[in-house]
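Supplementary Note 3. Input sequence used for the single-chain structure prediction.
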Amino acid sequence: MKYPLYIILLFAVFWGSCKDPDDQPEPDTPGVGGPVITVTERSVSVVTASLCGASYDNVLRIATGEVLQMKIRFQSNSVLSQYKIDVHSNFDCHTHGRVVAASNPWKLSKTVDLAGTDTIITEDIPVPADASAGNYHFMIRLLDATGNEADFVEYNIIVLNPDDTEPPVIRITEPSRDSIAIAAGSVLHIESRITDNKSLDNGKYELTYTDANDREYKLEQKQFPAGTGVAYQLKTTYTIPAYAVKGSATFYVKAYDAVNNAGVQTFKVFIQ
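The predicted structure, written as discrete structure tokens, is reproduced below.
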């Protein structure tokens, strides 16, 4: 099927990743016959879970090496054009400009042509056996032949490594209390003992904080040295900027093990 140039350009814009739901175009007949995606069956149950500091009710848990199967119905009052399935990591909670590396993140981008106005397909989507554990976004998109886009369907997927499902354990020893006060311009000492049930090798730790205005700052991110094994002593300092926002800030110590299981501990700092 050949499309006019303006439709091709619409497709190119549409297949971009992670769009804001508010950016969706109007369907050809709003609420009546515009393109619609309906997931009718899933091999994995949807659960509610806490991710990236918020609760989500669209979470799928699946182990590496398993197959996620979905039966999906696509409908429109115009001829259907294409659907796309996109899987990409959400290790950094989509904090743009801050990349959390992983040894082998799962990534999938699959586009399939459609015909007719109502069709049901079955997708078998294998999770790679060597995929890094962690959080992922799974998105289904649909276009009809007139360039109208359906409201996309989105899931948060938690990929687990069946050989190691336990995250690192973090014990903060400095500051010695859960909440302290410190003046802007002063040096904050941070010490933590990080342990894992198997290995921290090829893993990493990350220090961040969120100020009283809920703005996040990355302080430090480093790989664990080769041969770290199951324990690592983190010892570092951070100088609170003189211009730092006054008030309660939350500091995060995060650790990722060899298969990307993530552990986190926090402490509060009241910046004066």
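The first helix runs from residue 5 to 14. DSSP finds one helix and 17 strands in the chain.
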